[in-house]
Amino acid sequence: MRKPLIIVLILLVVGTAAAAKMKAYVGYDKDVDLGAIKTFDYRDTLDTSVINQAPPVHEMIKLLIISKLQDGGMKWVKENPDVLVTYHTDANQAMKINVTLYSYSYSAGWWWSPLWGSGLDVSSFTQGTLLVDIWDPKTEKIVWRGAVQGVVPEDPSPAKAQKTIEKALNLMSKEFQRMRSQQK
Description:
The protein has a single domain, classed as Double Stranded RNA Binding Domain (2-Layer Sandwich). It has helices spanning 2-10, 16-19, 55-71, 158-183; strands at residues 24-28, 39-42, 75-76, 83-106, 114-135, 142-151. The chain has a 6-stranded mixed beta sheet, with helices on both faces. The radius of gyration is 22 Å and the shape is globular. The protein has 4 helices and 6 strands; from the N terminus they run ααββαββββα. It is α/β, with parallel strands linked by helices. Helix 3 runs parallel beside helix 4 (158-183).
């Protein structure tokens, strides 16, 4: 049961309707000059990534993160990088409650009877989160963290999942590049 949920989570983060509403939330260490970061290396996290549950999705996320950093002018190196990069995922069940209030009215049938009342619609959904961490390998302190959260579609296609993950990483990448350029 947990494995299919994680695969659905990672085919990720947000459904088509919610994808338009994605927003990146970022935090960073104000004492670190992000503009001075030139090199990075990627590190896997076994507990909070999908490396064991969905290896193709893991590779897609990993390669997209590396690509975004390289597009931003950073160089991927294996020895002595300025920072290390990884990602984490999580999923939670959430509920949405819609209350509809009906007004007092008369029916249009052959008999006249007043109608009134309200309606209550409760639905549950899976909310997924994708986090990207960048940390200093010397101090092991996080220097930047980006997060995107949204609704996980019930049955996403691989193409839709890739598009959604790309959109989430684009939002985080724009914020990271904006912060780097402000500190140069």
